[in-house]
Fold this sequence. Notes:
about 40% helix, eight-stranded parallel beta sheet
Amino acid sequence: MALSTAFTKLFGVRHPIALAPMGGSAGGALTAAVSRGGGLGLLGSGNGDPGWLARELPLVAQGTDKPWGIGFQTWAIDTSAVERALEHQPRAVMLSFGDPSAFTERIRQAGAALIIQVTDLDEARQAVDLGADVIVAQGTEGGGHGARHGRSTLPFVPVVADLAAPVPVLAAGGIGDGRGLAAVLALGAAGALIGTRFQATAEALVPPAIATAIVEGHGQDTERNRVLDIARGSRWPARYTARTLGHRYLDQWRGREAELATDAEAQRAYHEDVAQGHVPPLPVWAGEAVDLVTDQPPAADLVETLAAQAEDALNRAGKY
C-alpha cells in the first residue's frame, strides 16, 4: 500500500518522511538525496551563515528537481538569512527554537510552505495561530537540541495532532527506522521528521569518525545536557539542551554547569583540546534510537527502505 497522508499530498512527495534540518550536517547533497528518494529534504542552515548557504544551496538545485526546503534555528537568524534562502525558491521553510512570528509573513508571501517545530503545547498553539502549514512535534528522545523540559514523543504527538487538526503534524524524536514511522502514523501524525538516522548516510556532512560513532552508539549512552554548549561557547538559549553521545567534558562537568559558565580557563582548555584533537570538533548529536543505526547507505535508498519498513509494520499490525 502507498503511505499517502496530508503531508505527502501537500508537497507531492512519495513518502511521509522529512529530513531533519540538522545544522551543518544536512547539507545540499543530503537534502537533494532525500528529495530524490521521495521524501522532503530540508537543508540544515542553522544560523543562516552566508558562506555556508552560498556553498550548499546550489547543490540542492543541482541535485534534484523534487520538492525541498530549508530549516533555521529561529533564535539565531535575522530576516536577511531567510531572504537569501527564499531567493532559491525552496518549497518549504522550517523554523525551530524560538519565536517564529517575525519571519512567517515573509515566508508566506514568497509562496513557500511554513513548517514550525514545537516542543510544548504553548508553542503548538502559537504555530496554529500563525497559520503554519505543517507543525513538527518534537519529543525529547531526539538527538541534538530540544526543550530542556520537553515531553516524550509517544504522548506528545497525538496531543499536538488533535490540537492542530486539520494542519498536518510530523513527529520528531527517537524515530530510527520504519517501525517508528509506522508508530507515529498510528498516533495521528502525517509523517516523521528524522535526524540521527540520516547522519549516518553517504551524503551527510559529518566527519567519518562521527558517522562511525553513530553506527556504534547505543541509546543508553545518550544524554540531554547543556555542558557541551557552555564549554564550546555556544550561544544556544538555556531553555534548549542537546542530546549527545558521551563526552569527556560531560563526565567532568555534569551537574556543574553554572560553575563551568564562569570558568574561562576550563572553556579555553576545551578549545585547546579540540585544536589538539583530544576531543571532536563538535559533540556527537544522537537520539535514543541510535541503536537502530547500523550502516551508512545512500540517503535516497534509506528513504525507500524506511517507507517499505513502515508499510510492512502497518500490514503486520493490521493482522491483529
